Amino acid sequence: MNPMPASTIWFIPLLPFAGFLINGTLGRRLPRAVVSTVALLFTAAPAALVAWLWTTMCTSGAPNTIESVIRPFGYEWIAISGFHADFAFTVDHLTLIMLGVVTGVGFLIHIYSVGYMAHEEGYWRFFAYLNLFMFFMSVLVLAANFLLLFVGWEGVGLCSYLLIGFYFKKSSAANAGKKAFIVNRIGDFGFLLAMFLLVVHFGSLDFSQVFATIAQNPQWQQQGAHFLPTICLLLLLGAAGKSAQIPLYIWLPDAMEGPTPVSALIHAATMVTAGVYMVARCHVLFNSSPLALSVVAIIGAATAIFAASIGMVQHDIKRVLAYSTISQLGYMFMACGVGAYAAGIFHLLTHSFFKALLFLAAGSVIHALSGEQDMRKMGGLRTRTPITFWCMSAGVFAIAGIPPFAGFFSKDEILYRTFASNNPLHIVLWLIGLATAGMTSFYMFRLWFKTFFGEPHVDPHATAHHSVHESSWIMLLPLVVLAILSLVGGWVGVPAAMFGSNHIERFLDPVFTNGTAAEAVAATTGHTLELVLAVVSVLVAVAGFTIAYVFYYEKPGTADALAERNSHTYAVVKNKYWVDEFYNAFLITPLLMFTRGILEIIVERGVVNGSGQAAGAATRGLAWIERKQISGNIRSYAGWLAIGAAAVIAIMIFGSSMWGAR
Amino acid sequence: MPTAYYLILAEMLFSIGIAAFLIKRNVITIFISIELMLNAVNLTFVAFAHMWHQVSGQIFVFFVMVVAAAEAAVGLAIIISIYRTRQTLNVDEIDLMKS
Prior knowledge:
The complex is a heterodimer of chains A (662) and B (99).
Chain A: H1 8-26, H2 32-59, H3 66-69, E1 73-80, E2 83-89, H4 93-116, H5 123-142, H6 146-164, H7 171-202, H8 207-216, H9 219-223, H10 227-242, H11 251-254, H12 260-269, H13 274-281, H14 283-287, H15 290-311, H16 317-337, H17 341-368, H18 381-384, H19 386-400, H20 406-420, H21 424-452, H22 473-488, H23 503-508, H24 517-525, H25 527-554, H26 558-565, H27 567-574, H28 579-629, H29 634-660
Antiparallel strand pairs in A: 1-2
Chain B: H1 3-23, H2 27-52, H3 56-86
Helix pairs in contact in B: 1-2, 2-3
């Protein structure tokens, strides 16, 4: 077995960065073919590297030996009297899965973008940003300490901002970018405070050191040390910002203003899962604080059902998917919160497949309809865009949790783990999760039926120039690959109850050895329960399908009638529970009043502008005095000259005696 | 004769030159007053040269005379061109450099 040369890891983030530099500096002058070739090459190479890493790891005997093959390594970065943070990478099983997702799905989406963005302005800019994103995301998942993770964390936030606001001439897109950035700042504020607390209490930001210190000091947990829950909750605030959880989820639906490949890559498959990754990465911290874990689980479950309920009534195809993403991320948080980190990461993996697929397929539909995103104006696309239809179907079945598609296994694992952890709170969470599963199935099949079945509602005027058409092969290829992955991706985690061996949890075992509380419980409850629960969740998914079938296929109009009858409830959900309006009224408006009323008048106009104007007025006054001398009258000049000369002579005669006396 | 006499004469000439420069408005008169000041300085040079028995002061006077001749040539040329363009030699009216 060949030890992996550690320096190779550096190429995984640095290659996309090189691609960013090339496209970012020269891209404007390069032809489109060169730009896309550069972008694809510099993302294909890291993907190949990661694939090689996988094969090296998996063929070198037991996969448990990864950490003995690649140790943390890096260069000194910040070192101040005892505290140091290195520019260091580390690779373990969790990182490997994340790297696979980031580079693999990222590469597929790059391919898709070549087709999708072919006619857009700013082609080079788009690919430069995408490559930059790949760089920061790789740094994020490879980082060996909190600080470097934060660098990646901020970097992906920056790329997200740049790409949401890609169509910056459209004010809604520019505003959405700002909203995402500002909301993320709130989360980052929590992350920063957590890091400060870590430095204060642990004197280090290295994952390994912090976690080792916690393991060495079990008395902290028994004595109820306050800083552990505080750190965890602050980290959770950061994760909630990045992964769009309550109360910071509001930016993600607006982020759909970005181009669809961006929604697929950043706002579905990779960046938004960074919060889940971070919680899983810090599982030692979270395990030390049951309170924080419960909060994680509750926030996850609440977000899951909340976002799913909003998703049921949206009409914009991308917004449905956005709320669905928030909801699925809630599932992942719920899994982490009940201690089933491996299940959370498993769902992250499968979700990245099927949600990227759904977004790309939605992009293909939008492309086919020349930019139409309203599902009320779609319909009957099954025969017009057959390949997109079949791929989309794979994604829909996967997310709805129909076996044997990927989503079924991961979602079921989460629900089972939640139910089996013998905690009355968790039973409630399980019920919420089950209800969410039903809602997910409903709104996904609603999307499916409205888009692909029934009568076409395409506005004939809007699409007069372009007839509805299937996308080009370069867009369909990633769709097909992702569709296959959405079908088979879940098979790595078939539980023992269904005659599988749950490879992914075995694989992640070395990382989450401390997180096995729930798994230990699960092992004792037996397979029957698991099977029963699986049957229940499949039944719920089928129920969601049936309702969607009746509402939107068999008797279209039923849904509208229902909405009419419950108009109050419908209005509440349709308006997204007025959360945006609530934030506007209670946070943004007071803040704006404060900045415009106090900061602008007193600080801006009073202090900042005032001091500038005072300096200007003083200069003008001096100049007024000076100007009196410059009269243009030659005799006044001569007079000044004579006075000056007299003064010089006086100083020469009397000055020396005056100063000499000293 | 004591050097002081020469110096007093030179001082008087120089003061007359300055006063004329400040008072008179005609460019040519001003020009003459400048010459007066220059020659007052020349007188002090010569006086001191005589007092210290050094020729360098006298040599310097030649330099001043040469420069003054050149200056007179340039100055008169300027005066002529001013008169041609503005039809006046009153310095109070020549104030284009007023800010």
